[in-house]
Amino acid sequence: MATSDSEFNSDLLLAHKLPETRYTYNERDVAIYALGIGACGQDAVDSDELKFVYHRDGQDFIPVLPTFASLFTLGSLTKGLDLPGFKYDPSLLLHGQQYIEIYKPLPSKASLINKVSLAGLQDKGKAAILELETRSYEQGSGALLCMNRTTVFLRGAGGFSNSSQPFSYKNYPSNQGLAVKIPQRQPLTVCEERTQPSQALLYRLSGDYNPLHSDPEVAKLAGFPRPILHGLCTLGFAIKAIIKCVCKGNPAAVKTISGRFLTTVFPGETLVTEMWLEGLRVIYQTKVKERNKTVLSGYVDIHSLPSSL
Ligand SMILES: CCCCCCCCCCCCC/C=C/C(=O)SCCNC(=O)CCNC(=O)[C@H](O)C(C)(C)COP(=O)(O)OP(=O)(O)OC[C@H]1O[C@@H](n2cnc3c(N)ncnc32)[C@H](O)[C@@H]1OP(=O)(O)O
């Protein structure tokens, strides 16, 4: 489907090689991230949460939350990722889904090399869905730490292909990151946590400086009454709740994370995460209590069940 330079050109797009990126972090970044996703936000001495921020023997001993891996992908999209053969308006971009596979417990500091590739593009008419896959390798050992697949929902960027046969490209297994079916039975457990009015301002210090989350004017231009919470912040709250309630506080129990952002969250709202166990899969959905709206749903695959469950 090759057209002129300014229009959709699948040949150009699929042949495009995304540059490698680097990401270096230390224990301070790990602690700031944990605070950004609400650790100790309700109780500064909650031992289940304090351990993600402070360790008596030194910050090297802080366990890293698995959703910290989602930060490794930051870099291009928020500043506007240039893709030859495909045009979109970055101000209308919303985070649609995140899929993460963790291959090794994340160290408290590391220098990483990210290999980025296009994993999918779909024309949905009113929108386009773009997926980018990032594999993060430890510099030095070359060990593969984790993989992120980021799905972005590009409002207004659809309709670029033939509507009777919309363009659809996906290069990963179809069973990964699927939308979940929420069980009809009562959840195994429920965790409620209030976000702070300043939550997005704190979370952005982990590196996602998109003004959609901090600047009222930019939020209005994007169609929102006020700045919205980062999707990855909401995901961080939900997975932290699963680690607390199902994994009995052990972040290394988490193998795979999948989440779909269904509606926007505003800083200050209360997140209620319901969890169901199906074998080694925790299915979850997160609602905003004040509006009774489901904002996120997905699953977490864990390595083993704690004996107390
Ligand atoms: C160098 C490497 C770079 C890597 C990348 C790094 C990127 C890092 C971050 C990227 C993002 C940065 C900027 C944004 C940050 C944010 O955090 S935004 C806040 C979080 N997100 C949200 O709040 C979005 C919440 N969701 C919604 O508002 C809605 O769900 C929606 C996305 C607007 C879609 O709703 P709607 O228009 O009503 O869609 P539908 O008509 O229901 O469906 C149309 C088709 O699209 C599919 N779909 C729907 N929702 C999603 C989704 N969330 N993700 C993926 N796909 C979705 C749906 O299935 C439909 O498809 P078909 O069924 O085939 O028709």
From TrEMBL:
Ranges where the Peroxisomal multifunctional enzyme type 2-like N-terminal domain occurs: 23-156
PANTHER family, per the entry: PEROXISOMAL MULTIFUNCTIONAL ENZYME TYPE 2, PEROXISOMAL MULTIFUNCTIONAL ENZYME TYPE 2-RELATED
An example Gene Ontology CC term for this record: peroxisome
Pfam (any one): MFE-2_hydrat-2_N
Domain MaoC-like: 183-295
Gene3D superfamilies for the chain: Hotdog Thioesterase
Keywords: Lipid metabolism, Lyase
One of the record's GO molecular function terms: 17-beta-hydroxysteroid dehydrogenase (NAD+) activity
Any one GO BP annotation for this protein: fatty acid beta-oxidation
Protein name, entry field: Uncharacterized protein
